Amino acid sequence: MPYNPSTLPSLKGAVFLVTGGNTGIGYHTAKHLAFKGARVYIGSRSLKKGDDAVQKMKSEAAGVEIDVHVLHMDHMDLFSVVRAATEFKSKETKLNGLVNNAGIMATAFQKSDTDGFEAQWQTNYLAHWLLTWHLLDTLTRTGTPEAPARVVNVTSNGHNFAPKGGIDFQDIDQTKGGIWSRYGMSKLGNILHAKKLNYLYGPGGSDKEQAGIWTAAVHPEAIDTELNTQADVPGFIQSTLRCFGVYKTPDQGSFTSLFAVAGPEFEKKDSGGYFVPVAKSATPSAYAKNEKLRDELWDWTESEMRARKLI
């Protein structure tokens, strides 16, 4: 591997939040940060699974005390995301890094009971946009141009499956699409979100007084996690890919996220970029580089969240 999180410096005194940190890539991302001395919060839909993950992490720490906590949030209930952000801010005054990691992939069509959005769009994109929005005050207070806070969105090369136009504002739930167009649009949203945040708060950002956040969108590669078992695709395909060694381990899948959220090798010039394994800068789709689409998506999302009194 050209990059390994063992090279991370001491993170003692730093605070991180990793969504979906109770399992898969998120678990290993949180574990590496905690093992380097950071205080880490793991977002989990299930408090029990979150607590189980913390206990497992502590058992793997080989007697070294680690500082890990569970933050309860359900991405299919946007109010719970707001509540989680509020809870976090009641406990912490700084946030050095946010990893928007939780996600689902290629699932059958379903809408959120509470919010009415298609599940992949809400889980992968909307919930993370909303969480980040409510933590922006803490992130900007923590970060400076010299020592920036960081926001990492876990995306996928599946963003190339987004529908024509990239973001279909006329059919935001992709009722006329399929499992992959819905997944692709949500993951394209993650990239556009990271780029908009960089435009607003990154190096040379439009908000000059708060240009203290670096961002990245990272593709972890094909990873053997629960994400694959939830996908609405034939099981034999996954078995075949596993047999041929296509899948990487969840630990390996965390490496690029760790590089972007805490690695000293991630530099000012990298902010707003798209990265693939391991810690390599890459070029996303044309839609992902479209500034007009980036701004339209931000405006649409802000309008929708305000209409629901979530911001």
TrEMBL record:
PANTHER family: RETINOL DEHYDROGENASE, WW DOMAIN-CONTAINING OXIDOREDUCTASE
Keyword Transcription part of the UniProt annotation: no
Domain of life: Eukaryota
Name recorded for this polypeptide: NAD(P)-binding protein
Alphabetical UniProt keywords: NADP, Oxidoreductase
Signal peptide, first to last residue: none
Family named by the database record: Belongs to the short-chain dehydrogenases/reductases (SDR) family.
